[in-house]
Fold this protein.
Amino acid sequence: MTTVLVLAVAGLGQSAASAAVSASGSATAPTRGATSTDAEPGKLLLMLDASGSMKAKDPSGLTKIEAAKKALTGVVGALPDTAQVGLRVYGATVDGKGKPTPAACADTQLVSPIGPLDKAGLTSSITAIKALGETPIAHSLDEALKDLGATGKRNIVLVSDGEESCVPDPCPSVKKLTAAGVDLQIDTVGFGVNATARAQLQCIADAGRGTYYDAKDAPALTASLSKLSQRALRPFAVSGTPVTAAPTPESAPTLAAGQYTDTFGVGGPARYYRIEREPGSTVRLSVAMRPPRYGDKWYEEVELKVTDTQGSRCTEDLENRLAAEGLLQVMVARVTVSGDGEDPCATGPLIASVTRGKNGVPEAPVEVLVMEEPPVESSDALPAATSAEAFTAPAAGGGSPVVGGGGFSDALTLDPGTYTEIVLPGEQIFYKVRVGHGQRAAFTVDAPAPGLPLPDFRGADAAMFEVTGWNPAREPFNHSSSKPPARSTFWGKAPAVANEFVPEVRYRNREGKALAVAPASIAGYYYFSLGREVERADSTANVPLTVRLRLAVDGEVNGEPAYAGPSPDASIAASASPTSADGTSVTGAADTEPGDDAGDDAGGWLLWVGLGLVAVLGGLGAAYTVVRTRLKGNRTEESRGAVSG
C-alpha cells in the first residue's frame, strides 16, 4: 500500500497534546480498531506547501509555515524506525515575485527520498524549509507519483489554504491520471478557502475518486486531516480464505461454513459457489463489499441467488447503492435458506450465484460469509418470540475516545460503556459487541457529544446520522419507526440522538419473520454501524463532529438452544487474516477490547503512522460518504419454506 500525505496546513500550530484535545475532547489516545501486519512496509510521502502564502500568520500566532513545520516534525518523531518515508516540498526555492514564471511553476523538490526512516535527517530537512514561491499543485502531484513508483494503490490527502497558481485548473491533470488507470485516490481539505479554491479542491477530489472536506478553523482541520490519514492507512478490509467463484455451477468451488474472500468485476455473467450443508441445517449466506467510487459511476448493484443443485430457486436478494455524491457505504447481499422441510432447498447442497451490475469500479474485493445452523432439539420448549420493544443505552459520562473499523472484519469490539468518536461527513464506522441468548443490546449516539461547543451551522445546513444494527450473519434490523429513531438530524441547535437496538435474542424470534425481530435469533457478535450523510462542499455542516457512543447489553444468558452440531457462531471463524482492498494483510479487531495493547509489533507500522498523526493532529477515521438506497429487499419462495434475511 502507498500513502501520500500532502500538507499545506496553515493553522497547525497546536502542540500534539492540545491538538488531540481539541479534536477529540480528550487527551486520551484513541483505542485502535485494527493493526497492519504481515505486509511489506508501506511508503509515506510527506508533501509540504512552502509557497509565499504560508508566510501569513496562523491563528495561534505562528506563521503558517512555522505551524506546518511544527506539525510535520511531530509526525516524524512519532514514526517507527521501520517506516518507509520521504518528503517533497514545493514553492520553496524560486521567488516568482507573485508571478507564475516557468521556473516558479517547476519548483518542487524531493527533499528526502522515500526510504528507511532517518528521523534526524528528515527533521533537519523540515527545519530548513522557508516559504517563498508559487503553488504548483498539478506538477507536484505528477512528480509525487514518480516518487512512489508505477504500481500499487496510492492515496493522497491534500490540504490547502489556497488554489493552484500555475495552471488554470489542476483537475484535467488528475482526470488524465485516473483515466489512464492509475490506482489513485485523492481526498482534499480546504482550510479557510474562498469559493474559487473550494470549487477547485472539490474538482480534484471528484477526479481523484475521493472526497472534499471544508475546515474553517484549526481544530476542524486537524480532525479532518487525521481522520483522512487513518482511512488512507487502513482501507476497507475483507477477511477469510481466498476463493474464486466459477463461471458455471458445475465448476463452482465448494464452500463449507466459514468466511471467504473473492474479487468481483462488473457487468459480467453470474459466478457460482457450491455450499455443502448437513441435511436440515439452516444456511445463512452473505456477500459484503464496499467498492470505491469509479469516475462518474454512481450506482452499484449486487444480486445474490440461491438454487438447489437442479436449478430450482430457493431464495434471492438484490442489494443496491445509490451514491451520486461518490461517498460510499458497505453493501451486503444476504439470504437465509431454512432447513425445515423435505425438499432439496432444505436438505441438499446449494448453488449460490453472485452478479454485479454494469456500473462501478471494475474490480472490488468481497467477503463471503457462510453460516450453518444445525437443527435444534425441542425448539417448542424454548422461549417464544419477543417483541421489538425499543430501549436505549444509558448516558454515563463523557466517554473515552475510540477509533472504529471500516467494515465487519475490522469492527472495533466494545464492552458496554460510553465512548467518543470523531465522525466526518460520509463515514460509516463499525463496532461490535457479544450478545447471547436471553440478552439484548442498544447502541445510542449523541451527535455532537454533550458538553462540547455546538458548531455554527447556517440556514438549513444540517448533519444527518444513521445507526444500523446487524446480526452475526450480517442481517440488518429495521427499527426505523422506533424512538429514538435510527436516523436523526443535527440542525445545529441541540444534539441529535440516533438509536438502534437488538431485541432479546431468542431462537424462536425467527418465527415472526419480521426484520425488526427475526435477525435476533442467533447468539454471537452483533454489529452496529454509525453512518453520516455527505454534505455539500459549501455547507457549514461539512465539518468533523465528535459524537458520544453509548453501548448497553442487558439480561443474563438463558434459553440457549440445543443444537445437533456446532453453534452457528462457532462455524464461521475466519481461517485467514483480513486482507485490505489493495491486497495488504491486516489484523482484524475481533478480539480487541478497548484499552488492549494491540498492534505493538514492528509489523504494524502503518497503524503507528496513523497514531503518530493522531497524537499530533488529533484523532482519525475512514471517510467514505454514504447515500444508499435499498431498492429491493430479499425475495423468497414461500412454497419452499425459505426464509430470507
Q: What stands out?
A: Residues 218-233 form the longest helix (16 residues). Residues 1-41, 574-645 have pLDDT under 50 and may be disordered.
